[in-house]
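Hi support team,

I'm opening this ticket because the web form for multi-chain structure prediction keeps timing out on my end. I have pasted the exact lines I submitted so you can reproduce it. The total is 694 residues across two entries, so I didn't expect it to be a heavy job. Is there a limit I'm missing, or should I split the entries? Thanks in advance, R.K.
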Amino acid sequence: MSLPADAAASGHWGPPYLLYLGNPADELAIKTARGVAYWRPEWCVGQYRHPDCKTTLGLPDMGMAEARAHGADTMLIGTANAGGTMAAEIVADAIAALDAGLNVAAGLHQKLRSHPDIVAAARRNGRALFDARDPAPGIPVGNGRPRAGRRLLTVGTDCSVGKMYTTLALERAMRRRGCAADFRATGQTGIFIANAGAPVDAVVADFISGAVEWISPARDDGGWDLIEGQGSLFHPSYAGVSLGLLHGAQPDALVLCHEPTRRHVRGLPGYPIPDPKACLEANLAAARLTNPAVRAVGVALNTSGMPEAEAVALCRRIGDELGLPCEDPVRMGVESIVDKLLACFAN
Amino acid sequence: MSLPADAAASGHWGPPYLLYLGNPADELAIKTARGVAYWRPEWCVGQYRHPDCKTTLGLPDMGMAEARAHGADTMLIGTANAGGTMAAEIVADAIAALDAGLNVAAGLHQKLRSHPDIVAAARRNGRALFDARDPAPGIPVGNGRPRAGRRLLTVGTDCSVGKMYTTLALERAMRRRGCAADFRATGQTGIFIANAGAPVDAVVADFISGAVEWISPARDDGGWDLIEGQGSLFHPSYAGVSLGLLHGAQPDALVLCHEPTRRHVRGLPGYPIPDPKACLEANLAAARLTNPAVRAVGVALNTSGMPEAEAVALCRRIGDELGLPCEDPVRMGVESIVDKLLACFAN
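Hello R.K., no limit was hit. The queue was backed up. Here is the completed structure from your submission:
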């Protein structure tokens, strides 16, 4: 699967990466860079920081030419400003990276290719620009036709409850057991981690399910596509994206992700977090449209906000209630969920 | 509510319309023009046809300058080619219309403003271009906050089952009874008919529910917003759009639209038409997220494919089964649905 073509040159981009931090406002601003450094350390040559930068990914600090000399292909601007705009210093640094021979990729709302000076620098150096929020041209409308291969989708009681992390943890655990399993990215951080994927929340509305069919095509090697979920059927701002994703995925298996300390869905105090069981049942009911045999295989809790003993007890209680393995992927791993998945689909 | 700004000039566009037919391939190709002529005859000065055009809307034939002299403001290109592309003759005719002093509006996938010669003609003449499939800039993400006013939404067992027609028939019937009621358009034909609205299937996926909130803002005159539905929760290509629309509408009332002779959803032989009762219940369940008090008030059948006696019997049977008034808006009107609506929301 190829990534969207760049706007300025016909070249490709990809790892090895120089991760750009610049001078971020806070930890949240480098969420994307941190995700890539955590999940793909082998792709990360170094980090680029301004002298006054107060955070680190623990990677070697490098200048752009130095990173190029160390084999970096692309500088990845993994920071996010409020509003997704591009500060003047980021523009200047992107141009400097292009002049140093690196390609440049970013996940900002404001596109690299919308800035004439960045486009000119890419042309001048024959380098590629990649905006992760720009869907590839030619994504088709979903067709709903059953396709070969097995697919798992993470769904959630809310946005930002650990769906990407859980999906990547499943990929890692399954590969360790020798299973063919591939993470399929649907958001900007996931796209950088996979070096492939489609930003399903940024496609034109008629193409949501088509984008998911496109990133997880038929496969016949007996392996699994592990598809990163987005949003929640119970989030009134984004449920359309979640439903299109569910239909396009034609999932054989669902894993429910949940953050038990949250009281209302992200950004909307009037909307309480749904009950996990009701949420899972609603997802199963909707998923049956394109895969009547869909089953739930586990629950992933983000328990970072609670003490260990309480987290263990809560996993046990929710797991019992739903009749499924329930773990915190960070604290406990996902082995019992993989056990359940492989047992359910042994043949 | 204002329409999206045009791309080439700062002027406004709107009725009176000259309806452009050109030389259409078939009746389906002039569906949009026919919808506007049927629902807004008072806005239509005339039709523009090529000499070999084999169809008519029954309007006076006019040249562009003649239409301008008769008070036309905008030439509406209401034709659709396979693929939504713009034939060379349409480009030439759009330029001629601009040179004759008309604004030009179109609902093609290929945008007027993407054609340099059309843009140049608009600039030269100080005329406006409007692409109905181009969402307005600045549509916000949906916020789900309860808002004042009453809203009805048409939902369907499939695409193209009469949701726009039913919504407009309800507007007409309610206005005849002296009720304040306003059609809110969500698709290209509806946008031309309302001279307002947003193409919800063409917005970026994260903004579906926000677009619907934007076209049906709070109102405190006791009147109704009648919102045109799109797609179906049971169409695997487009259900994401339908769910976002349902959440953004916060409907007080739903009317289910159904075409009883259809065997499978549009374009997908593998997907049977859902049972009307199950479809209505799924829509009510999903709608409760943003309006827990939602109720169904009627069923609209498109019975054009069956004899009169059979149509009447079927309306009675489905109406009894669902406990709701059931009519074919074309054959029978929508009076019993309006009766039910007004009785349900008398206070």
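A quick check on our side: The radius of gyration of chain B is 20 Å. Let us know if the file doesn't open in your viewer.
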